[in-house]
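As a warm-up, study this chain.
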Amino acid sequence: MTRRCCDVLLKPIMECAGKDISNWFDPKTKDILTHVDPLTLSCIKYYTPRGRFIHTPPPCPRTDWANDFGKPWWRDNRYEVGLLSAKTRWIRIINTLTSQERRLEVCSEETLDEILQRYLHFNSHASSYTWKHNGVNLDMIKTLSENGIPEEDEFYCGSPDCNLFSPSICLYFNDDLTEL
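Now compare it with the structure written out below.
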C-alpha cells in the first residue's frame, strides 16, 4: 500500500480527531453501520458517508486490497480512549476549611470515590474530608443521583446563571492526622 493511499484512508479519522464517532457504529453489533448499496440494490456494504477509512473494504472487489491486518482498529481495545457518558453535569466542590471552590464536570456514571480521585489533583488531602450535600453525609461508593443530588435545572443550563444552580458538595475537614 502506498503512502498516498494511507493518507486518503486516514482523512475521515483525522477530520474527526477528538470528537465522538460513536454514530459511525451499530450499537448492537459494535461494527460499522451498513446499508444496501444503491448501485446494486442488493449488496450490503459499510456505510461511510465521510469516505472509506482504514480497514474498511473498497466498494467493489479488488485484488490489491489486503485483508490480512487481523482485527480491525474499531475492535482493538488498544485504541479505546474511554467510555461515552450518558450525561455529564457540573458540580461545585467547596472546601469549608479554606473557602475554596472548584467546579468540576462529572459523568452521571461516576461514583463520588471516582470524583474524589480527580479532585485530589486540586487538594491532595481531600480523602481526609467528609463530603456532604445539604448537610447530609454522602456515600462515596454511590453516584450523585444515587445520593439524591438533583440535576441542575435545565432552565438555567447554558445561561450565565448556570454556575449558581450547580449542585454543591461541601467538604468538612476531619482531623485524622493522615500524611499528605
